[in-house]
């Protein structure tokens, strides 16, 4: 889809965001989006040829403009591997703890089977990007003599699984996130287990 960046297209996207997140894709009509944006339906179609195009535009924008921040700063040296991994885990799990992200996740999950390209946008903007960031960090940790890993891809997946626990399941089921103390314990335990397996000083 060719991206639209006019002021009116921004109004339409903002209206679509509000309607999709509040009512869902199926219950939202182009008439409702036009009404919410304060423009005619013809104006909506002038910028987005269909409701599907609006959905794609909204999700693309979410990851391009307001996507998750980097998990770590590659310009900073790794001085404390435990602290660095803990910081990455906090940045990663923060994604699962906001109502806004919950709403977008629900929107994507309920429509991905009908619009496969949405799943690709989501995977490229979120999970695949995070895995690559963690993989690069782990590689840096190996170079610094802090980690001992044979399969970087596997280790990156294991790390993210350890520190996220059941947060994605809570998210998918629209359940409330755990109390801060619970996911702090999850992060600390996940980092500890990961380093027991891959730390350079682990016991063979």
From TrEMBL:
<dbReference type="InterPro" id="IPR023772">
    <property type="entry name" value="DNA-bd_HTH_TetR-type_CS"/>
</dbReference>
<keyword id="KW-0805">Transcription regulation</keyword>
<dbReference type="Pfam" id="PF00440">
    <property type="entry name" value="TetR_N"/>
</dbReference>
<keyword id="KW-0238">DNA-binding</keyword>
<feature type="domain" description="HTH tetR-type">
    <location>
        <begin position="6"/>
        <end position="66"/>
    </location>
</feature>
<dbReference type="InterPro" id="IPR050109">
    <property type="entry name" value="HTH-type_TetR-like_transc_reg"/>
</dbReference>
<protein>
    <submittedName>
        <fullName>TetR/AcrR family transcriptional regulator</fullName>
    </submittedName>
</protein>
<dbReference type="InterPro" id="IPR039536">
    <property type="entry name" value="TetR_C_Proteobacteria"/>
</dbReference>
<dbReference type="GO" id="GO:0003700">
    <property type="term" value="F:DNA-binding transcription factor activity"/>
</dbReference>
<dbReference type="Pfam" id="PF14246">
    <property type="entry name" value="TetR_C_7"/>
</dbReference>
<dbReference type="InterPro" id="IPR001647">
    <property type="entry name" value="HTH_TetR"/>
</dbReference>
<dbReference type="GO" id="GO:0000976">
    <property type="term" value="F:transcription cis-regulatory region binding"/>
</dbReference>
<dbReference type="InterPro" id="IPR009057">
    <property type="entry name" value="Homeodomain-like_sf"/>
</dbReference>
<feature type="DNA-binding region" description="H-T-H motif">
    <location>
        <begin position="29"/>
        <end position="48"/>
    </location>
</feature>
<dbReference type="InterPro" id="IPR036271">
    <property type="entry name" value="Tet_transcr_reg_TetR-rel_C_sf"/>
</dbReference>
<keyword id="KW-0804">Transcription</keyword>
């Amino acid at each position: 889809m060719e991206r639209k960046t006019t002021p009116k297209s921004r109004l339409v996207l903002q209206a679509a965001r509000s309607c999709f997140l509040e009512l869902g894709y199926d219950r939202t009509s182009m008439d409702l989006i036009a009404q919410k944006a304060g423009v005619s339906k013809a104006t909506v179609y002038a910028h987005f040829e269909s409701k599907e195009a609006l959905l794609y535009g909204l999700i693309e924008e979410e990851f391009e403009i307001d996507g998750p921040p980097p998990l770590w700063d590659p310009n900073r040296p790794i001085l404390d591997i435990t602290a660095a991994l803990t910081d990455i885990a906090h940045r990663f799990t923060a994604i699962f703890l906001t109502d806004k992200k919950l709403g977008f996740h629900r929107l994507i999950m309920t429509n991905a089977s009908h619009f496969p390209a949405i799943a690709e946008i989501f995977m490229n903007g979120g999970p695949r990007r995070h895995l690559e960031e963690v993989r690069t960090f782990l590689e840096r940790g190996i170079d610094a003599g802090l980690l001992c890993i044979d399969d970087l891809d596997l280790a990156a997946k294991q790390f993210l699984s350890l520190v996220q626990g059941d947060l994605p399941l809570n998210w998918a089921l629209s359940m409330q996130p755990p109390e801060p103390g619970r996911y702090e314990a999850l992060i600390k335990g996940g980092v500890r287990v990961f380093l027991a397996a891959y730390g350079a000083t682990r016991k063979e």
